[in-house]
Amino acid sequence: MNAPEHRTDIVVVGAGPVGLFAIFEAGMLAMRCTVIDALDVIGGQCAALYPEKPIYDIPGFSRIDAGDLVQRLAEQATPFKPSYLLGRQVVAAQANGDGWLVATSAGDRLACKAVVIAAGNGAFGPNRPPLPGLAQYEGQSVFYLVRRREDFRGQRVVIAGGGDSAVDWALSLSAVAARVSVVHRRDKFRAAPESERRLREGAAAGRIELVVPYQLDGLEGRAGRLSAVIVASMTGAKRRIEADALLAFFGLAASLGPIADWGLALERHHLKVDPATCQTTTPGIFAIGDVATYPGKLKLILSGFAEAALAAHAVYPRVHPERALHFEYSTTKGLPAV
Ligand SMILES: Cc1cc2nc3c(=O)[nH]c(=O)nc-3n(C[C@H](O)[C@H](O)[C@H](O)COP(=O)(O)OP(=O)(O)OC[C@H]3O[C@@H](n4cnc5c(N)ncnc54)[C@H](O)[C@@H]3O)c2cc1C
To answer: Which of 118, 145, 262, 310 could form a disulfide with 14 if both were Cys (CB 3.0 to 4.6 A apart)?
Structure first.
């Protein structure tokens, strides 16, 4: 790897809620962070998968929309002047004296004292339906996530899938779309029972059309603009549904990508950490949030927040070897200058 272009105390891989809170926890201990994310926006799953959904288990908030949580976390991190490098993947980390050299897919090279991996399920990649010509429609009329419900106002929307995302978005979009059709290959959904009950209620009331048991078979349209989705029954009988947009919710491909090849111990695609420090099996590389695992791990945002605090304290002697770390409450020390 060539010489670094940028120096920082900690490189945080992933700008999800946990990576964002890591900036704050590091800042409280006078450590600066550079945060890198493959997405063009901060917020991880909260921003990419459910920005307008309320979360009910963030301490201190009886409910908060995921997008608002991201905004508040970014505000809380602002005093510590983080650098964000978005739209690029972290591809390599190489030992460099008492620290690390980190490389991204955009050619950045960063020298740091510690790497904190907050990579969630890995860089996002949707499971795509195997339909001919799919690529020309992607981003124009075929989508794998909803950024703004309003984008679908007045449209004829086909939703494919049988899990929570398909059912929740069918319910939500039925309030704004001209028509919502849900295509699923079974008559049973893998969604929360209450959501499925509301889906069937919506179907009975004519607000949602259930196209079951059917699966996607083809797309019709021109120059990336969809005009119809072709579906086929299990016996091969075809049906044409006029549509402006197709939302395909077949889950995300969970792949750690290059991080899986860094020689860190893995357990079912997650990084094994010492729960006392969140250090991986490689000294100087830490993992927090959904990507980290240890006995009793709960994949919750609040667990990730606590892990960010543990990792920051464990990283401290690497960044400030000359200073003893005295545990202090934020009420005692206020916000330290950076
Ligand atoms: C529909 C839904 C509802 C949920 N509801 C709740 C809830 O009510 N309460 C709760 O606590 N949790 C909930 N969760 C789970 C919660 O969203 C996750 O626990 C949380 O997002 C984990 O945060 P994170 O920062 O660890 O990872 P993520 O949010 O997954 O962010 C990881 C980021 O890392 C980036 N990344 C990965 N690899 C790389 C790389 N090599 N280079 C650069 N960037 C990389 C990704 O692009 C991503 O942006 C829900 C999840 C979903 C999908």
So the answer is: 118
134 against 147, higher pLDDT: 134
- With beta carbons less than 8 A apart as the criterion, state whether 15 and 84 touch: yes
Q: Does the beta carbon of 121 sit less than 6 angstroms from any atom of ligand 1?
A: yes
Pairing type for strands 109-112 and 99-104 reads: antiparallel
Tokens describing residue 245: 């947009």
Whether the upstream peptide bond of residue 129 has omega within 30° of 0, thus cis, is: no
* Sheet containing 109-112, strands listed edge to edge, beginning at the edge strand earlier in sequence: 6-7, 109-112, 99-104, 90-96
DSSP alpha helices (H): ranges in 156-276?
164-173, 193-204
**Confidence (pLDDT) at 254:** 58
Give distance in angstroms: CA of 291 to centre of ligand 1.
9
**Closest ligand 1 atom to the C-alpha of 292?**
26
Residue found under tokens 């070897």: 321
List pLDDT tens digits, range 247-293: 999 987 657 889 999 999 999 889 999 999 999 999 999 999 999 99
Confidence band of 1 (pLDDT split at 50, 70, 90):
low
Task: Single out the residue of 11, 215, 6, 256 nearest to residue 125, CA to CA.
Answer: 256
Ramachandran region, residue 284 (left: φ > 0; alpha: ψ -120 to 50; beta: rest):
left
230 Cβ inside 6 Å of ligand 1: no
Query: Residue 235's pLDDT band (boundaries 50, 70, 90)?
Result: very high
Report the distance separating Cα 270 and Cα 321, nearest Å.
30
Spatial neighbors of 21 by CB under 8 A, at least 6 apart, are 73, 76, 77, 304, 305, 308
> What pTM does this model have?
0.74
